[in-house]
Amino acid sequence: MAKAEKGVLQTQHFRHGFRPMERHTSTLMLMKNPGLLILFLILLAPYSGHGHHDPLELEEAVIRQRLEALPCLIEPRYVSAVKGYLKTYLVEQRDKAEKILGRALVYFPLFEEELRRAGLPEALKYLAVVESALVPTAISRSGAGGLWQFMPQTGASYDLLINAWVDERFDPVKATRAAAIHLRKQYERFGSWELALAAYNSGAGRVRRAVKRAHSTDFWRVRRYLPRETRNYVPAFIAATYLFHYYYLHRLEPQLPALDQQLTATIELHEPLTIEEICSVTGLLPWTVEALNPAWKKGVIAAHGRRAWLTLPAYAMPAIQDYLELRRADPAALSMLELPLMEAPANAWQQTTYVLGKGEDLRDVARKFHCHPLHLLFWNHIATLQPPAGSELLVWTPRRILRCKPGTSVEALPVVQPAVAISSIRTPRPHEKEPLDAWVWHRLQRNETLPEVARRYGIGLKQLYERNPVLRHAAPMPGMRLRIAPHNALPSARIGSR
Q1: Is the pLDDT of residue 449 over 70?
Q2: Residue in 22, 75, 131, 229 annotated catalytic
Q3: pLDDT digits (tens, 9 = 90+) for 337-364
Q4: Which of 86, 145, 440, 466 could bond 169 through an S-S bridge, CB–CB 3.0 to 4.6 Å?
């Protein structure tokens, strides 16, 4: 590949791989000289026991030095609990640690933005690693849930709604904002991040009583009076911070999620939007939409008109914004779209090469390409935000931006199979109305979904939406009466309750 000029982009296809190690001549020397080989094995013996040596003990002095230099929100002491968590990340569960590192590309940009917005230290993002390993649907044995592990009652106190339609503890945006408020409250109460983190874990009352018993506000003095889990909570935070600063020195390779999950855009919704609609307009697969919006249980986002956040791959969001604008301004124009349109994009992303200019660092490049510096670190397998000028950086960008406008070419708009053309809805004219008794009606039951109703009566989901225009403006609710089909169009066995 020709060398890129500074500031110039080169589109290319790229395959990740490992470079083969060069053969060392020293190995040949040992093979040819038995005396040297025996001496080498004698020197190696103390380090080659059968599992008797703790790998971290061999590096303990180095780890202590790194901890002393670690930019940590709290004092990074190397106590036994910290060592235990580091051993888990770096030795015993390396695969889990690599998955956590990869998930950070999905959630750390959001965490940093919301923590800055709340005036809190960005380093608090590592707390979600301790709480949930960055799994947005994680649920603990005690019933705490989400990235920030709110108990239902605590979540409710921060307006996180939990019902049959939604569990907002699993909403990354709302849960992060609630966590920021809760953390600020604990810090203002105790004046120490160590104690604030302890209170986040076990409650302010327990920490207050422990402080009283210890006659001190020093966490390391108070620690012995706290529950066991809380005693280890701050050490777990220190270990998580260490992991993200020094993972590469322990040969950990982040396991990166799909680019559709890494590079996203988020908008605020004030009206119901179904996952079927999103898939029909953008061509995204349902599980991609659900993975990015895990709070909603029944395939309807912003059900009942409750304000919600919608996250989609960056290239797909403009199409949904177009669609929502069209749905609000001119619903009749939706029929011009003739959804579904095309198959989902198989190659939605392309890789480009950017040559770092003089005085630039990864933060500058991230702003240019609408990504995060962590993306650039992981994509390029580097460990510094300031590589030397002239460094070639690999960057992922959308191959195209999807739009959804009637009367324009639909070549950039994909379809999902099986497709549900929900949005090509035609509002009946007054002269088209028929007597009420000419139709079969169905009363929606609790926990019943529209696809289930459509399957029950053997009709298409598109037909169900066409015959019930109210569904364009309101989420399905128990007790809602839905017009199904004319009596003479359904077999008698399929006729439901009126």
Answers
A1: yes
A2: 131
A3: 655 444 556 688 999 999 999 999 999 9
A4: 145
Which range is most confident: 106-115, 382-391, 452-461?
106-115
**Predicted model pTM:** 0.73
β-pairing verdict for 9-12 and 264-269: unpaired
Residues in the chain: 498
Return d(Cα 167, Cα 172) in angstroms, integer: 11
Cβ neighbour number for residue 466 with a 10 Å cutoff: 21
The domains located in the chain, with CATH, are 63-250 (1.10.530.10), 349-398 (3.10.350.10), 430-494 (3.10.350.10)
392 catalytically annotated:
no
Are 164 and 297 in contact by the 8 Å Cβ rule? The answer is yes
Q: Which residues does 332 contact at the CB level (< 8 Å), separation at least 6?
A: 426, 427
The amino acid sitting at 119 is G
The CB-based long-range contact list for 163-166 (8 Å cut-off, 24+ gap) reads 164/297, 164/298, 164/446, 164/447, 165/296, 165/297, 165/298, 165/300, 165/303, 165/304, 165/475, 166/295, 166/296, 166/297, 166/303, 166/306, 166/308
Q: How far is C-alpha 25 from the geometric centre of its chain's CA atoms?
A: 47
Euclidean distance between CA atoms 387 and 362, whole angstroms: 8
Angle (CA) 111 112 114, round 5°: 65
Token pair 């605020």: residue: 268
Angle between helix axes 34-44 and 25-32 (nearest 10 degrees) is 110
Average pLDDT, the chain: 81
CA distances from 178 to 29, 37, 170, 369, 403 (A): 63, 62, 12, 30, 33
Given a cut of 70, whether residue 5 has pLDDT beyond it is no
